[in-house]
């Protein structure tokens, strides 16, 4: 029943976006203001190139934490589409009247990775967390970034959070966490698989965190209210649900909704 419900929901969303797109002004190319969760930077850049080529619309993207984008949107930032790192923020924006009801859908399901830029630091089962032989462990701010909240959840489930708390280094976004680890300022850190996966491989050393150790990181897209009949934002949301976009998203280490 859950699978059938999910399929029905996605069909409803697709139909909704199609109907909205038909009534939008499609005769001209639009410039679309998009707020994109930092973990989705690499796949979005690839998607943007393909979308602009296929649709004629132009995307103007800002990358950052979902929590910060929420505050900016509520304060009147002129974004038209939000690609969040969670499913709670889009739902909250709809409830508060800042996004279009019925438009949110999951475009990707994120994967969390414990990563070090150096070989041999992180073992394949994450036992390094229990060994506690390092000086710094980086993660995204759990108050702003869903991946940060998932990182805390993992450490608590493993029973190591209290002992590791003094060694935690917090970045505002996953991009900052990546910089901390890649520069060597932190020996290891929790990042998104999409940030470290290159041609199917991960440099350094890593542990892909089992999905059962944290709440699923369902990343939802939502149409924001300033759209006012423009075709571009609607076209982008529909494009994200297509086979071409889904293949690109998977290639960057995400799962996609069934």
Key features?
258 residues; alpha/beta; D-Maltodextrin-Binding Protein, domain 2; 2 domains; 5-stranded mixed beta sheet; 22% strand; ModA; Molybdate ABC transporter substrate-binding protein; AvModA-like_subst-bd; signal
Walk me through this protein's architecture.
This is Molybdate ABC transporter substrate-binding protein. Helix 1 (2-23) runs antiparallel to helix 10. The chain has a 5-stranded mixed sheet with strand order 2-1-3-12-4, with helices on both faces. The chain has a 5-stranded mixed sheet with strand order 7-6-8-5-11, with helices on both faces. The chain has a two-stranded antiparallel ribbon with strand order 9-10. It is of the alpha/beta class and 258 residues long. Mean pLDDT is 90; it is low at 23-27. The protein has 2 domains: 2-109 and 218-251, Periplasmic binding protein-like II (D-Maltodextrin-Binding Protein, domain 2); 112-208, Periplasmic binding protein-like II (D-Maltodextrin-Binding Protein, domain 2, 3-Layer(aba) Sandwich). It is globular, with a radius of gyration of 19 Å. 41% of the residues lie in helices and 22% in strands.
């Amino acid at each position: 029943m859950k699978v059938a419900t999910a399929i029905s929901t996605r069909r409803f969303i697709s139909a909704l976006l199609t109907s909205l797109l038909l009534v939008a002004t499609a005769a001209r190319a639009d410039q679309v203001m998009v707020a994109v969760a930092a973990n989705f930077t690499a796949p979005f850049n690839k998607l943007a190139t393909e979308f602009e080529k296929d649709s004629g619309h132009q995307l103007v993207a800002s990358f950052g934490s979902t929590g910060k984008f929420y505050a900016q949107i509520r304060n009147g930032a002129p974004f038209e589409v939000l690609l969040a790192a969670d499913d709670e923020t889009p739902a909250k924006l709809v409830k508060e009247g800042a996004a279009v009801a019925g438009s949110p859908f999951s475009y990707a399901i994120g994967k969390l990775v414990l990563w070090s830029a150096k070989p041999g630091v992180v073992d394949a089962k994450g036992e390094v967390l229990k060994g506690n032989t390092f000086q710094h462990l980086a993660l995204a701010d759990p108050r702003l970034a869903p991946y940060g909240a998932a990182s805390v959840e993992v450490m608590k489930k493993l029973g190591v959070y209290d002992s590791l708390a003094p060694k935690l280094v917090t970045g505002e976004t996953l991009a900052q966490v990546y910089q901390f680890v890649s520069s060597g300022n932190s020996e290891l850190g929790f990042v998104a698989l999409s940030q470290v996966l290159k041609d199917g491989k991960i440099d350094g050393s890593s542990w892909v965190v089992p999905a059962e150790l944290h709440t699923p990181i369902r990343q939802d897209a939502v149409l924001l209210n300033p759209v006012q009949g423009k075709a571009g934002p609607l076209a982008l949301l529909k494009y994200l649900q297509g086979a071409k976009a889904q293949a690109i998203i998977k290639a960057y280490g995400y799962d996609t909704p069934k």
